[in-house]
């Protein structure tokens, strides 16, 4: 049994299609959260009504409404999470989960995840392996075991507080968080045996796959990906549908942002650390050095 308990926070905007199933997954957990704050970030559909219907039956669920920005970007999500954190300040527990509103998992998910945290005091961020929904069914997301997908990032609270939580960047707040955690000496880890179904492709909120991959490439530039590593990253995307177009879109977004000289959203210290980490990973891939697990 995991010690100390956990809390959850979800930022949701117009998620009526998915959020009911996500809530059902959480209320079915063998280890329930002490509190779950769901922040409705300017929703105009039935999201609020769905959350309220569950909150009336489960007193650990709290709904917080906020007036979201007109533009849907990740800085709005970060601000929603920060506002929701105010409703968790009175609960002292060691673990904090950031959960997207479009995922489902088995009843033992959080109990197993927290046990893994308890067994490794250096583990700062962890989560299960994502399976993205595609027209042909659920497909396992290409993911380094040393990186944790944003929809299911669970933090040791000490880690979250040390890195200052999510930063209000316009994209890539989850990547920035896990890289910052490793900079501070924490481990980050995906446990693929803990399967999570993601009911749409990662990054496609409000966008098609091509646009989402371009946006991901822009994000990679803004958080400091090295050009050679971005090419390697694009090559790994050849295993995902759409096989060639997805990789091309990623590179188009990245190199387009570089040509436009779009500003970085992270410090020079952060970029230097991240590129050293990427260099270690590249050397490990070609057998020049022992394995080093960081995010791709």
TrEMBL record:
- InterPro entries for the chain: Glyco_trans_2-like, Nucleotide-diphossugar_trans
Glycosyltransferase 2-like domain: which residues? Answer: 9-140
Translocase recorded as keyword? no
CDD domains hit by this protein: CESA_like
Keyword Membrane on this protein? no
For this UniProt record, the keywords arranged alphabetically read as follows: Glycosyltransferase, Transferase
Q: Which Pfam families match?
A: Glycos_transf_2
- Give this protein's Gene Ontology molecular function annotations: glycosyltransferase activity
Q: Which residues form the signal peptide?
A: none
The family annotation for this protein states:
Belongs to the glycosyltransferase 2 family.
Protein's UniProt name: Glycosyltransferase family 2 protein
């Amino acid at each position: 049994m995991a010690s100390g308990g956990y809390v959850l926070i979800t930022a949701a905007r117009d998620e009526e299609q998915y959020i009911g199933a996500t809530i059902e997954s959480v209320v079915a957990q063998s280890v329930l959260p002490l509190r779950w704050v769901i922040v409705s970030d300017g929703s105009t559909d039935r999201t609020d009504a769905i959350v309220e219907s569950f909150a009336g039956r489960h007193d650990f669920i709290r709904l917080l409404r906020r007036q979201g920005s007109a533009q849907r970007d990740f800085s709005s999500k970060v601000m929603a999470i920060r506002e929701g954190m105010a409703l968790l300040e009175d609960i002292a527990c060691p673990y904090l989960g950031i959960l997207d509103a479009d995922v489902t998992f088995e009843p033992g998910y959080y109990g197993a995840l927290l046990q893994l945290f308890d067994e490794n005091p250096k583990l700062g961020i962890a989560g299960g392996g994502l399976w993205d929904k595609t027209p042909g069914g659920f497909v396992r997301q290409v993911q380094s075991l040393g990186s944790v997908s944003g929809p299911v990032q669970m933090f040791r609270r000490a880690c979250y507080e040390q890195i200052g939580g999510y930063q209000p960047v316009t994209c890539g707040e989850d990547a920035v968080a896990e890289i910052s955690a490793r900079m501070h000496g924490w481990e980050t880890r995906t446990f693929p045996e803990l399967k999570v179904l993601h009911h749409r492709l990662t990054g496609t909120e409000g966008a098609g796959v091509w646009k989402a991959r371009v946006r991901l490439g822009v994000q990679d530039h803004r958080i400091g990906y090295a050009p050679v590593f971005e090419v390697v990253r694009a090559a790994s995307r050849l295993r995902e549908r759409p096989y060639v177009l997805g990789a091309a879109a990623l590179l188009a977004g990245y190199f387009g942002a570089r040509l436009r000289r779009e500003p970085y959203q992270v410090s020079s210290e952060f970029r230097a650390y991240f590129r050293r980490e990427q260099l270690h990973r590249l050397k490990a891939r070609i057998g020049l050095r022992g394995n080093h697990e960081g995010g791709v």
